[in-house]
Design brief:
178 residues; alpha+beta
Length: 178
Amino acid sequence: MNQNISETDFRVRATKAIKGHRFEDFSEGKIFEHHWGRTLTDGDNTWFSTQTLSFNPLYFNRPYAQSLGHSDMVVNPLLVFNTVFGLSVEDLSEGGGLFLGVDDCEFIKPVYVGDTLTARSTVINKRISKSNRAAGIVTWHTEGFNQSGEKVVEFKRTNFVRFRNPETVLAEEKRQGV
């Protein structure tokens, strides 16, 4: 096999991979069980808390956390949120489109160093954008769980989501009189 591939050869052989779902793939009520999961370590928690200037001793001082009745150091809730959000990206927004925000974020239970988080998202709303004719707007309800299946965080997030075929979507909109 030739290990000396020129840039021209590479560009000829390369194919663009379409990643992520498109607007047409989402329907209200559809559930995505996000794969992988992620175990949060002491290093993750300390690094994230330091980098975000979250100097709450609950996040990096085990004896202090235990003195307040916790079994171990509490994982920074923003790390919990970002981890669960990140687990959902491949299924929900990897296809591209502007992030429009998060609403109704609730931290339900503390997460501790060593806990493994998983995530599930449900499509709760979908509509064609009035301002961006190349995309629709989708809102999901995302829930994060620890290794025991206990819900630890939940939130709603909204994104523009690209159409796979804008002509088909817009023709359907016109047919429905929207």
